[in-house]
Amino acid sequence: MDVIIAGAGPTGLTLAGELALAGVDVLLTDQIADRRTNEERAGGMHPRTLEVLDQRGLADQFIAHGRPTQFGHFSGLWLDFSEFPTRFPYGLMLWQHQVELLLEKRAADLGVRVHWSSPVTDLSQDDDGIEAVVGGERVRAKYLVGCDGGRSTVRRLAGIDFPGTDATLTAMLGDVQLLNPPDRMLLFERGRHGDFSVIRNDNGWYRAVTGEYDDVVTNRDAPMTFEVLRESMLKIAGTDFGMHSPRWVSRFNDTARLASQYRNGRVLLAGDAAHIHFPAGGQGMNTGMQDAVNLGWKLAAVLHGHASDQLLNTYETERRLVAERVLHNTRAQTALLRPGPHVDALREIMAELIKQPDVNESLGAMISGLDIHYPSGDGHPLIGRRVPDLDVRTKTGRTHVYELLHSGDPVLLDLGANVSVPGDWVKVVKAQCDARDWEIPVLGSVPAVGALLIRPDGYVAWTDDSGHQPALSPWAAV
């Protein structure tokens, strides 16, 4: 066995698919008995996540099951993605259970199935691998990845700390039916006692959410009932919208924590096991899936002998910075949601600022993940950023860059520089591109280059203007 993945949510399923695509032997486990299709936790996908799916030829499947819309926001102040330089200048309303079903099908098509009722209860490691107790049986593998949520057992067994800030509010949600629903798809308002939102689903259900500040339920296992949610909505909104027939109710808060390290030897963490935060801006599921795509190709490169084990250290270097920023902006958004005249005044100023195109672009690119820039040192401004999805012409016809990444291989895109790379560690594609300037979110217009090395996760590792050749080492530029 190459890799054990604990947790079959969006992060674990994405990672399983990435590893299986690369020919890695995967054991995907989860402690629960089956998929909880009634628990609609996350509800949307941002442009960068849609791009990541498009890099594997999957975006159309997800879009067919969702609803493209402009739902991006910063603390309830709406953002406009429509002018962003991407094929997906919008968010996709798609509930988590549907995301999981689509990702599970992809994993199954690649030969991976979920082992339910199979928690990881113990682990030990040595120089050669991991030995874990999975579903009561001892299993040996080369690596183990904990994608098992905010209360991660893998994180605890690996001895990784989870520092952060404690809760300042209690939020409640439920999927309910309404006798007197709002006249819009998404309603969000702040009031004297907190804030509330109501989101309409296509199948007649509504997501009702309330947030009450400085009223923190410290017992994470305290019972949550439909009546508690209904009373909270009445208190904050002045109406319960005639809610009835709850399908699911839950309680959460704004506790924000970040793993002290993403790796301990052969144990790694991804998704909520590595970072938790208030779901402001809908960044959680998106961040976890992108963790998985960053880690997947690196694990595969190490396991196939294309790179040393040290490559895995770059996973934490890159993705921890992303999580730090998510925790930072969600704390800011939480503060901006507080009731009271002082925050009211601040929100009025922020609302005016967001009307400025530069502010909208800066906040929108941050929330959507389009502006991620991994540390790259000196070099071309494209290095460490997502590759733009350029229209190009190859010997087989017209295509676009993300289609070249469907196989999950690194791609050396030669646009006229005639770069030679010995060995078979990278797919070389010779093409022509008519665009002389490439638009990059926030960065702006960048002159076209003659060649670029694109990592399997869609980020640029090298350009021919960088001053060194990729042939020196497969991932010298990573």
Please explain how this structure is put together:
- The protein has 478 residues and is an alpha+beta fold.
- The protein has helices at residues 10-21, 47-54, 59-65, 96-109, 153-157, 226-237, 284-303, 313-337, 341-354, 357-368; strands spanning 3-6, 26-29, 44-45, 67-69, 73-74, 77-78, 91-93, 114-115, 120-125, 130-134, 137-141, 143-146, 164-165, 169-178, 186-191, 194-200, 206-213, 243-253, 256-258, 263-264, 267-269, 275-276, 391-394, 397-400, 411-414, 427-430, 437-440, 444-447, 451-454, 460-463.
- The protein is built from ten helices and 30 strands.
Into which percent range does the helicity of residues fall?
A: 25-40%
Tell me the domain tally. 3
Q: Tell me the number of helical segments per DSSP (H or I, 4 or more residues long).
A: 10
What multimeric state do the chains show?
Answer: single chain
Number of strands: 30
Q: Beta-strand level of the residues, as a percent range?
A: 25-35%
Q: Give the CATH level 1 class of the largest domain.
A: Alpha Beta
Q: What is the CATH third-level topology name of the largest domain?
A: FAD/NAD(P)-binding domain
Q: What is the radius of gyration?
A: 23 Å
The helix/strand class is alpha+beta
List the helices and strands and how they pair.
Elements: E1 3-6, H1 10-21, E2 26-29, E3 44-45, H2 47-54, H3 59-65, E4 67-69, E5 73-74, E6 77-78, E7 91-93, H4 96-109, E8 114-115, E9 120-125, E10 130-134, E11 137-141, E12 143-146, H5 153-157, E13 164-165, E14 169-178, E15 186-191, E16 194-200, E17 206-213, H6 226-237, E18 243-253, E19 256-258, E20 263-264, E21 267-269, E22 275-276, H7 284-303, H8 313-337, H9 341-354, H10 357-368, E23 391-394, E24 397-400, E25 411-414, E26 427-430, E27 437-440, E28 444-447, E29 451-454, E30 460-463
Parallel strand pairs: 1-2, 1-12, 2-8, 12-21, 25-26
Antiparallel strand pairs: 3-7, 4-7, 5-6, 9-10, 10-11, 13-19, 14-17, 14-18, 15-16, 16-17, 19-22, 20-21, 23-24, 25-29, 27-28, 29-30
